[in-house]
Amino acid sequence: MSELFLPQELIRKKRDGISLSDPEIGYMVRGITDGSLTDAQLGAFAMAIFKCGMSMDERVNLTRHMMNSGDTLNWDQLNLNGPVVDKHSTGGVGDKISLMLAPIVASCGGYVPMISGRGLGHTGGTLDKLESIPGYDATPNNSAFQSLVKQVGCAIIGQTANLAPADQRFYATRDVTATVESIDLITASILSKKLASGLDALVMDIKTGNGAFAANYKMAQELAQSIANVSSNSGVPTSCLITDMDQVLGHSVGNAIEVMECIDFLKDPHNADQRLLELTLELSAYMLQLSGLESDLDSARNKSKLALESGKAASIFGKMITELGGPVDLIEVPEKHLKPMPLVASIQSNSSGYVSEVDARAIGLSMIHLKAGRTKSSDPIDHGVGLSEIVSKGQWLDKGESLAMAHCRDQMQLDFLQSQLPKLIHFNQKKPSNTNLIKEVLTSNKGLN
Ligand code: URA
Fold this sequence. Notes:
Blueprint: H1 7-15, H2 22-34, H3 39-52, H4 56-67, E1 85-89, H5 97-107, E2 112-116, H6 126-130, H7 142-152, E3 154-158, H8 165-175, H9 183-195, E4 201-208, H10 217-233, E5 238-244, E6 253-254, H11 256-267, H12 274-290, H13 297-309, H14 312-323, H15 334-337, E7 343-348, E8 353-358, H16 360-369, E9 386-388, E10 396-397, E11 402-408, H17 411-424, E12 425-428, E13 438-443
Parallel strand pairs: 1-4, 2-3, 4-5
Antiparallel strand pairs: 5-13, 6-9, 7-11, 8-10, 8-12, 9-11
Helix pairs in contact: 1-3, 2-4, 2-8, 4-9, 4-10, 5-12, 5-14, 9-10, 12-13, 16-17
This protein binds uracil (URA).
Uracil is lined by residues 171, 180, 185-186, 189-190.
């Protein structure tokens, strides 16, 4: 049957705004995976979708074919006594939530097989943060990964070569053909990878604001609605939280520095950054409620809080690290393994007033300059450099007080941050009004179409 199709004819059809059938989409995805579609055809196909869009049926079919282009995980034979549930974030600056969230949900009876990516552009990647831990092996094979999830309750690893391979090639082409910012393609790309891990429920954290990929609110809403619809059409109940990314999440950026913040958070949640705490517990509550572990959000919130405050989540985090090859005493003595930088210095404010704006995106980009982030996926990174104790919006600062602590390898890096950071944090004499951290929640089983 597939021999009847020709790539150029299907590209033409999509280019002319005509919907592709399920077999036609299946044919194109097979061509992406086996290499029979050329790079030129793939670029043209991406642009045709970018310009003409896809119907809901097309999005669901594209997602399913991309998900089935490689391995998919099945949990039936593991006889788990709880649901398999995950969270995915569209990425933000200082977004380290997965490291605390997965152990919290595992403490409450969920199984969290979290497959994360590396950072690209101004946002950091969970995998890069974890790889700052000496010995951490983020690439176990599928069966070791599944056993670990059963044994510990959660595991955070990197994407294996055979998980949604169609997406790996498609995404690389989109990256160089100006076709990343398509709601249809982003939906299929994210969900093909997430749904391949055999989830019972999914919670999405869709960031919006100056440090987010979806900088404008309308795009975040469209993406949330699209993901909720496609995911539920594919049989996985999904809630999408649209959350604020107009400042750094938590008080640090970098890799090892963010791991340090997570360890402090798990050990001593009462002293955690309030926005980080609120969002972590809220995402956990949605994961527990959506996966059926708790019947309502309030009890799910309480259970999540208890898991954190009792130290159970910290102990599961420690277990996950050890089982994946990291140090057994990471939680007890993190500074022994996450080595401090040679130069740690305060960056002082040039003005006084209330912090009114934080350019999170530019702070993320400054991390690339220091090599804590990358511009192409093959770039090596420096896990040690970064910023801690970054001020938050609404905080009062006198001139000369600290905007952040810089953790640098040398004086040149420190000079760079000292020249840049004061330009990225703005002040006002009037206290800015509070912005909602969680702006909206779209849930697929509430009649979205
Ligand atoms: N993240 C993904 O995994 N895919 C996209 O298309 C965009 C962001």
